[in-house]
């Protein structure tokens, strides 16, 4: 087994080194107020207000991300056997699909960043191929405004030194974890293979307004969105069980306050608090808005359900395996606190989250809590091209139909290597357990563990 894994790592490394010339940086440094799609984008949260790039006309940067993975995961459970018919398939719907060691479907993104005017930038991102959507899907597009030279106002120019507007279909800026997650083919920001168990990520149409004080390190954000991944213009007809009235689609409100500053040449401190709130929605997806899918393929899946599905078992069925979605599609009120410390090569990133919500057929809110801590050490000091890390992540929640609250916990150890700032390899050993699910639930006594190796290119 060790020989096979060593051979695999060597093959992936040689293959990636062969494409290093494709990651030329001819377009670097042309885009203002921009987060690089490579190693330089690590630990970047909101884009800086530092005016370091001189505007010299319209510029177009074509970027992308590609990720290839090999996994050796194995899963099991203790659920009671339950024979059902799903579509044209009949069998035990609580049996676990046997998993074979092998390569997963590669994922790829393409991004266009266009400098339209001084301080005005457009981003368009497309998922070219992912686990959940094998075909190309537009992720979204937004306009980022850091200056307003077209208003010809010295007062506005002075105000815009601390203000940023983001308008369009963009990532919902709830919490800080979404800046560190894997997003389809773009996995270079994430020191681990997979995202949180309860993955808070969605794109919604709206506007984010940022205030950043470079001197003090204080920042604030306020946003209003439509609360939907897919915009809705058809009048609602469903009855909300809680109100007894026809459903309404009010906007969602997001807020964030924080402090982020390099206190000494060796020490950076960032702390933030976030809130997301929507009272009703057609289908809110804050905890299920990822259109790419999990990086743990086919764990805790069932062959009977897959065979009876109209979706392809290998990619679409149970596309978010290993994650937990509390199902707050109608109402969602979530709070998150984040702490980020970096002392030289040592990093600590922590998350505390409390969420409440429900579906349209429920009359009362349910709750979910999530805790996570990452410890990363990057070395050597001059380049930080290597790292080792450990993450512990746990979620406890009330779910519909279960007699008690449930818990999902994960431990993950990772190690990685940046061959160049655009080319990365990482490996992760993961162990995840499911507790207190009823015996008739496929996740009863569930667990999976194993090794996942990823190779990634981003530019």
Helical proportion, percent range: under 10%
Task: Name the shape in a single word.
Answer: globular
Structural class: mainly beta
The CATH class: Mainly Beta
Number of β-strand runs:
20
In CATH, the topology is named Porin
Count of runs of 4 or more consecutive helical residues: 3
How many structurally independent domains? 1
Task: Describe the sheet with the most strands.
Answer: 16 strands, antiparallel, barrel
Q: Report the average pLDDT across residues.
A: 92
Which runs of at least 5 residues are low in confidence (pLDDT < 50)?
Answer: 1-26
Question: What order do the strands of the largest sheet run in, or round the barrel if closed?
Answer: 1-6-7-8-9-10-11-12-13-14-15-16-17-18-19-20
Q: From N to C, what is the helix and strand string?
A: HEEEEEEEEHEEEEEHEEEEEEE
CATH superfamily: Porin
Gyration radius (Cα, Å) is 22 Å
The separation of the N and C termini measures 33 Å
Indicate the proportion of strand residues. Answer: 35-45%
């Amino acid at each position: 087994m060790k020989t096979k894994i060593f051979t695999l790592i060597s093959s992936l490394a040689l293959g990636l080194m062969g494409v290093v010339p494709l990651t030329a940086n001819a377009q670097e440094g042309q885009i203002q107020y921009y987060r690089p799609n490579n190693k330089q984008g690590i630990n970047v949260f909101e884009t800086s207000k530092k005016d370091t790039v001189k505007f010299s006309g319209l510029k177009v940067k074509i970027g992308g991300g590609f990720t290839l993975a090999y996994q050796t995961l194995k899963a099991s459970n203790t659920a009671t056997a339950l024979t059902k018919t799903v579509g044209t398939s009949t069998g035990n719907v609580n049996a676990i699909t046997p998993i074979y060691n092998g390569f997963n479907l590669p994922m790829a993104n393409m991004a266009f960043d266009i400098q339209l005017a001084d301080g005005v930038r457009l981003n368009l991102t497309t998922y070219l191929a992912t686990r959940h959507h094998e075909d190309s899907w537009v992720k979204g597009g937004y306009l980022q405004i850091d200056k307003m030279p077209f208003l010809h106002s010295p007062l506005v120019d002075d105000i815009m030194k601390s203000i940023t507007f983001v308008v369009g279909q963009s990532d919902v800026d709830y919490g800080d974890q979404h800046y560190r997650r894997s997003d389809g083919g773009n996995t270079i920001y994430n020191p681990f293979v997979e995202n949180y168990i309860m993955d808070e990520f969605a794109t919604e149409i709206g506007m984010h307004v940022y205030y950043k004080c470079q001197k003090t390190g204080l920042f604030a954000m306020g946003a209003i969105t439509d609360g939907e991944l897919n915009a809705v213009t058809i009048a609602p007809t469903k009855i909300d069980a809680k109100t007894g009235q026809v459903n309404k689609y009010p906007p969602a409100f997001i807020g964030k306050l924080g402090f982020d500053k390099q206190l000494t040449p060796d020490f950076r401190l960032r702390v933030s608090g976030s809130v997301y709130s929507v009272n009703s929605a057609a289908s809110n997806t804050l905890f299920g808005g990822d259109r790419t899918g999990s990086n743990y393929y086919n764990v805790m899946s069932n062959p009977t359900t897959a065979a009876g599905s109209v979706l392809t078992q290998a990619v679409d069925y149970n596309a978010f395996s290993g994650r937990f979605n509390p199902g707050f599609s109608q109402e969602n009120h979530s709070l998150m606190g984040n702490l980020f410390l970096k002392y030289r090569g040592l990093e600590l990133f922590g998350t505390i989250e409390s969420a409440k919500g429900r579906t349209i057929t429920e009359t009362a809110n349910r709750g979910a809590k999530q805790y996570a801590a990452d410890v990363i050490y990057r070395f050597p000091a001059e380049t930080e091209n290597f790292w080792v890390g450990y993450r512990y992540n746990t979620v406890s929640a009330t779910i519909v139909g279960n007699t008690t609250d449930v818990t999902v916990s994960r431990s993950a150890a990772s190690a990685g290597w940046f061959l160049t700032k655009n080319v990365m390899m990482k490996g992760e050993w993961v162990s995840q357990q499911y507790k207190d699910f009823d015996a008739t639930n496929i996740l009863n006594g569930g667990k999976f563990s194993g090794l996942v190796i990823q190779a990634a290119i981003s530019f």
